[in-house]
Amino acid sequence: MRHRHVAWMTGALVAGSALAVQAQDGPLDYPQWRGARRDGTAAAFVEPATWPTGLTRQWQAETGLGYATPILVGDRVYTFGRLDTEEVIMALDAVSGAVVWRTAYTAPFRDNAGVSRHGPGPKSTPLFYDGALYTLGINGVVSAVDAADGSLLWRKPAESVEPLYATALSPVADDGRVILHLGGQNDGALTAFDARSGDVVWRWAGDGPAYASPMVTELEGVRQIVTVTQAHVVGVAAESGELLWERPFVSRSTNNSITPIVDGTDVIVTGHDLGVTRFRPRLDRGDGRWTTDTVWETDEVSMFMSNPVLAGNTLFGMSHLRSGQFFAVDAGTGATLWRTEGREATNSAVVLAGDLLFLLNNDGDLVVARTNRTGFSQVARYEVAPTATWAQPAISGNRLFIKDESSVTLWTVE
Questions:
Q1: What's residue 19's pLDDT?
Q2: Using one digit for the tens of pLDDT, what is the confidence trace for 125-161?
Q3: Residue ranges making up the domain that contains 248
Q4: Closest to 85 (Cα-Cα) out of 110, 62, 112, 61
Q5: 3-state class of 175 per DSSP?
Q6: Residue 20 lies in a domain
Q7: What is the pLDDT of residue 253?
Q8: Is 17 a domain residue?
Q9: 81 DSSP assignment
Q10: How far is CA 290 from each of CA 170, 260, 286, 293, rounded to the nearest angstrom?
Q11: Domains of the chain: total
């Protein structure tokens, strides 16, 4: 039986002394899905000399149902959740958890068999970009609000047809544009909005909805959006929305939800019962055509909703095989380095911090382990929530912002 370290209290809690953030190297902001680079890296975490037997709870705030990661910019934490019939965006003081501002809109929830299990709260993490916050509601409402006071900049209603599993992807920004994949079965469109006005800059009508969050990168000298759709991995020109290349990628559950990893010239993708594939998009300078060459494939590990991280030349994550296995795969060859026995958890949100992995399991347990290529090496384990934790944690310095079913809690490593 796992040892439980934390006794729970109710209501918002502010520590008796001001929150002490250890001196850190590098920026402390965590402004979007999976961090500043969208790669699952913590912001400037410094490991303690000795790991404590328990984390220190600083505060807890009710922020509403949903799986959106809380994001951190400066001294504010921004959250997105559902309270009753409204989707609510909040700014909290990072030290005390006090509400700085709150803005909400009515968002009727259209329940269906595909989304009932995970509830009516939004799954999309807000994006902080150029002084504004951008959110995607569970039924597809797109909002832009001023991060200083929460005032509405623009809002787009939901598309007439929504995805079977509602929305889950998190927006990305590039060169004054905010990019999301909107719409439902057979008519989903990757859409770039002007960040300030909300005007549509371009739309690429893809092959159905997307649940994976897009990445912005440059391949073969061409800036592009790399994302996973209903049936393909695609590269779309960032400036125009033109389809550059596509590669078939159809999962058993048709809800591809894992964010692609871009490693140099290559793309690494995984999906439900699809194993892991590393491929290389190539541009023929002669005829202008793109191809995608397979570098390696493996079916020894596979991911459903848990996003992996790349630490140097090693891919770490949780495979859905054997009811949840932590694993390490050599990113150069695709060889499996190790796998745990299984039954670890249904899902684990993975964050990389130097040579450490933070593995937030959906049962509220946070596992800390080494990025070891020879075997699973646990450092510590803490209970951080009394309810399910499907959202990514936001880790900044010695602070861990954890979203459970309806609240955000700040824990610190003292």
A1: 40
A2: 999 999 999 999 998 999 999 999 999 999 999 877 6
A3: 56-412
A4: 110
A5: coil
A6: no
A7: 62
A8: no
A9: E
A10: 27, 18, 11, 10
A11: 1
Nearest to 259 by CA among 221, 225, 294, 296: 225
How far is 392 from 212, CA to CA, in rounded Å? 14
DSSP string, 326-395: EEEEETTT--EEEE--S-S-S-EEEEEETTEEEEEETTSEEEEEE--SSS--EEEEEE--SS---SPPEE
pTM: 0.92
**Token output for 272:** 């439900």
Question: For residue range 181-212, what is the model confidence (pLDDT) as tens digits?
Answer: 987 655 678 999 999 999 999 999 877 778 89
| pLDDT, tens only, 233-258 | 999 999 999 999 999 998 766 567 89
Residue 323 in 3-state DSSP?
helix
The reply to whether 26 falls in a domain is no
Residue 400, strand partner residues: 395, 411
Question: Does the pLDDT at position 272 exceed 90?
Answer: no
**357, two tokens:** 């992995």
Q: Identify the CA nearest to 38 among candidates 177, 192, 227.
A: 227
| Distant-in-sequence, close-in-space partners of 395: CB < 8 Å, separation ≥ 6 | 30, 42, 43, 45, 351, 353, 358, 401
Q: What is the pLDDT of residue 109?
A: 79
Q: Residue 271: which CATH number? A: 2.130.10.10
Assess contact for 309 and 303: CB atoms under 8 A: no
